Amino acid sequence: MIVKGFKFSGISSGIKGDGKKDLGLIFSDQPASIAGVFTKNIVKAAPVIISMERIKRGYARAVIVNSGCANACTGEEGIKRAERVAEAVAHYLNIEKEEVMIASTGFIGKQLPIEKIEMALPELVSKLDESSFRDFAEAIMTTDTFPKLSNYTIPTRYGDIHILGIAKGAGMIRPHMATMLAFIVTDASASCHELQRMLRKIVRRSFNRISVDGDMSTNDTVMVLAGGGAGIRVDASIKGIFEDNLQRICDDLSRMIVRDGEGATKFIVIHVKGGRSEGEARRIAEAIGNSILVKTAFFGESPNWGRIIAAAGAAGVRFDPEKVVLSLNGIPILKEGFQTGEDFIGELNKKEIIVELNIKKGPYEYKYFTCDISDAYVMINAHYTT
């Protein structure tokens, strides 16, 4: 898909040291309205601190992203190096340095290898092309096993609008937000305030409903840029369909992140029903979805459903255990306090599993998306620095 007015590139600058792509760039021909949501971790990486301030301007022209170095916990020197990268990008693109957003992902505590990045920038800029979004997607990967892209075309009475989303993430994934980066571009025109309103709501329904390992990153960033290349403004007549498709993009990307969880073998949906509020249902779903005992049981294909009930009961939500109904892929396991005796063992070896728990207290429900934890996850993270 071509998103009018946007170009992409991705190359190897030597940050990773293995020849893989590690430096990506998005460039908008015109100033693009921008919105963003960032990690709620108190420990924020240098690029997050800078981008959170710059995004207040409401527009941007470029986003520079590196993988292989998070530039987190690097102090004032980390801030200086990130700003130096943005200034160099602005020089080659002939734009203001404040129009350059920055994002990083990788190992925490190392200073950004500024010389390698500066030497690579001429090549990075020269390779900008409207069809090179896959190169960008590959450049921002760390432990990801595949690039994550999603796109939709929205037909309107004025013509077509295009939306393209690119994300990375496989480990250190936990809501608020989930090491995760996502960049969404559209050739529609929209105000930064409207984009921000939409994005906050959409992130709550997508990236904040996923977990791989329960850990929150220092670098999480989601940005939306609307460049206006299609010449179509998101007015009242198309706002609904535009927001719906933006939601679809984020839903797609967030689920790809879970499916690509480090060492994951199963995609698991936790569906909690019967809450007195959405918050109650959410707390139970998150407790189950982040339980290491639950996740390892699914990896081992163990029929230990008691771990699910135990996690739900520890969520801080009052319910009557004698009334709950627990099902797995539609097969009832527990009903009104008693095991049903239904055979669900064959469901445990499936790649997608739906856990449904009804606490029968009210009309609210919540879906949460997670994965199992395997021995491969342990090995990946035990040796990540090497």
List the helices and strands in order: EEHEHEHHEEEEHEEHEHHHEEEEEH
How many extended strands?
Answer: 16
The rounded distance between the terminal residues' Cα atoms is: 37 Å
Query: Biggest β-sheet, characterized?
Result: 8 strands, mixed
Can you offer a commentary on this structure?
The longest helix is centred in the middle third of the chain and has 21 residues, at 239-259. The protein is of the alpha+beta class. The protein is globular. The chain contains ten helices and 16 strands. The mean pLDDT is 94.
TL;DR of this structure?
By secondary structure, this protein is an alpha+beta fold. The protein has helices at residues 46-54, 75-93, 114-126, 133-139, 192-205, 239-259, 278-289, 292-299, 306-313, 375-382; strands at residues 6-11, 23-38, 59-67, 100-105, 148-156, 159-168, 181-186, 188-189, 221-226, 232-233, 267-275, 325-328, 331-335, 338-339, 352-358, 364-371.
SSE inventory with pairings:
Blueprint: E1 6-11, E2 23-38, H1 46-54, E3 59-67, H2 75-93, E4 100-105, H3 114-126, H4 133-139, E5 148-156, E6 159-168, E7 181-186, E8 188-189, H5 192-205, E9 221-226, E10 232-233, H6 239-259, E11 267-275, H7 278-289, H8 292-299, H9 306-313, E12 325-328, E13 331-335, E14 338-339, E15 352-358, E16 364-371, H10 375-382
Parallel strand pairs: 3-4, 7-9, 8-10, 11-15
Antiparallel strand pairs: 1-2, 2-3, 2-9, 5-6, 6-7, 11-16, 12-13, 12-15, 13-14
Considering the chains and any ligands shown, give keywords for the structure.
single chain; 386 residues; alpha+beta; eight-stranded mixed β-sheet; six-stranded mixed β-sheet; globular
